[in-house]
Amino acid sequence: MTLDRVCKRFGGVVAANEVSFSLSPREVHGLIGPNGSGKTTVLNLISGVTEMDSGNIWLDGQLISKQPCHVRARGGVSRTFQHPRLLKRCDIQTNLYLGIDLANMKQKSMTSCGYTLSELLDAAGLSINMNDSITTLSYGQQKLFEIVRAILSHPKVILLDEPAAGLNSKEMERVVALIDCAVKGDAAVLLVEHSMDLVMSLCNGITVLNFGRPIAEGQPEEIQSNEAVIEAYLGRGRSA
Ligand SMILES: Nc1ncnc2c1ncn2[C@@H]1O[C@H](COP(=O)(O)OP(=O)(O)OP(=O)(O)O)[C@@H](O)[C@H]1O
């Protein structure tokens, strides 16, 4: 997937300012930056939740930036949200198969990315009864469940919005295991995350945003020692 000079403005706020980067299959790419720097906006522009002002997004050589959300989802873009978006009045099974092409799933005999559903649930540490209400899952379990659901649609790109936020250390290990499953299934993962330990240990490449603008791109060790990134995080850039 390639983003080419993607822009989005909300009134006077430029939330995405000429954002460009590429993701390859099996790559985990970090998208980081201080609060309000535009990370979630970029995920919304890729998934089609928000319409962009200008720029292009390509997936496998196809221009997807004018497509509605559901077409992008079918074409291989899946995502999770900062706070899990689940149907509270429905059971676990209904939530699991939301947005997944059921006919296609049956054909694949409940397998995805080379993993069976039960293997993905195992990786997530979820031992669940499909008929139970989704509300029987704790917050952490719901976040893990949402990642399982995202992998289950056999996506080309998975957008993860702060998957570790609010999770304990055991649950964070489960997030890592699920990202591993996604990568082994040839997906590209775009990871928005404030836990720098997680980002630095998992990502092959990182793009850093500040005030909607990319200020650095590179491998974790380059990003950690990049002056502009350090200033953005320490806030000196804001008062300059
Ligand atoms: N729908 C919207 N309407 C108006 N302004 C918005 C909207 N969505 C985002 N913004 C603004 O765009 C900027 C970027 O927000 P965004 O949520 O993308 O940042 P972020 O990097 O994901 O932040 P955080 O790390 O706090 O989640 C912020 O100034 C935000 O207030």
Automatic annotation (TrEMBL):
A UniProt-annotated Pfam family: ABC_tran
Entry GO CC: plasma membrane
GO molecular function ontology, one term from the record: ATP binding
Keywords, alphabetical: ATP-binding, Nucleotide-binding, Transport
The keyword Ubl conjugation appears for this protein: no
InterPro entries: AAA+_ATPase, ABC_AA/LPS_Transport, ABC_transporter-like_ATP-bd, ABC_transporter-like_CS, BCA_ABC_TP_C, P-loop_NTPase
Keyword Heme: no
Domain ABC transporter: 1-236
Matches recorded under SUPFAM superfamilies: P-loop containing nucleoside triphosphate hydrolases
Protein's name in the database: ABC transporter ATP-binding protein
